[in-house]
Amino acid sequence: VSFIGVVASTWTLSLRLKLTVYRAYVWMVWWSCQRVSAFLVRSMVSAATRIAQETFQTHQHDVIIASSFGGAVLLYGKAAGCFAGSANILFSPSQGVVGPLLHSSAADMIGLPPSEGTLVVHASKDETVPVEHSLKLITSMEESCRRIEICKLSSESAGDPTAPPGAVSDDRAGAKGREDGA
Questions:
Q1: Distance in angstroms (rounded) separating the CA atoms of residues 44 and 69
Q2: pLDDT tens sequence across 20-38
Q3: Domain for residue 175, yes or no?
Q4: Among candidate residues 79, 80, 144, the one with its CA nearest the CA of residue 107
Q5: What distance in Å separates the CA atoms of residue 80 and residue 157, rounded to the nearest whole number?
């Protein structure tokens, strides 16, 4: 065995060892970031739900309107029984963004009583929270026999307060199977 062969095999072994350690380090950092992100989101949702619950107990609102992250907080609060007896209107709830960090699926999260309805209003061309997230939420809630409806805003009326009433397309995705027949 030549000196060059020994140096080359030692160098190759050293490189393989370094790459293995590097891969393990990258995986560990990625895994830790996932756990930290989930923990931070859980903490934010928990704190926001607690604040919303305190406000609700003080004022006892009949209707709660929430959007984006607030929509996700409203869903989690309703699932925990924080806002009993109130009607819910959600504008572009970010449950599809927040939910995967908290639970394996939207169906695991939703614990709303079947008698309480929820209306989701979502713009068709929403670039921040895609309408598909709300559609997935509605599907999962319907599968667990929850009353939910969607009202999708057409792209012409999205964000335009002066849009004519006809610019709203009410899909009523959750109207089928409702107890009140509406």
A1: 10
A2: 888 888 888 877 777 777 7
A3: no
A4: 144
A5: 34
Q: To which H or E segment does residue 121 belong? A: strand 117-123
- Residues of the chain whose pLDDT is less than 50? 104-110, 115, 157-182
The owner of tokens 């619950």 is 53
User: How far is it between the farthest Cα atoms of the chain?
Assistant: 88
For residue 4, being part of any structural domain is answered with no
**DSSP reduced 3-state for 129:** coil
For residue 16, CA distances in Å to 10, 20, 27, 136, 148 come to 10, 6, 16, 45, 55
Pairing of strands 147-153, 168-169: antiparallel
- Write the CATH number for 109: 3.40.50.1820
Instruction: Find all residues with CB under 8 Å of 163, minimum gap 6, and list them.
Output: 156, 157
Does the pTM surpass 0.85? The reply is no
Domain that holds residue 84: 48-169
pLDDT for position 174: 40
Q: How many domains does the chain have?
A: 1
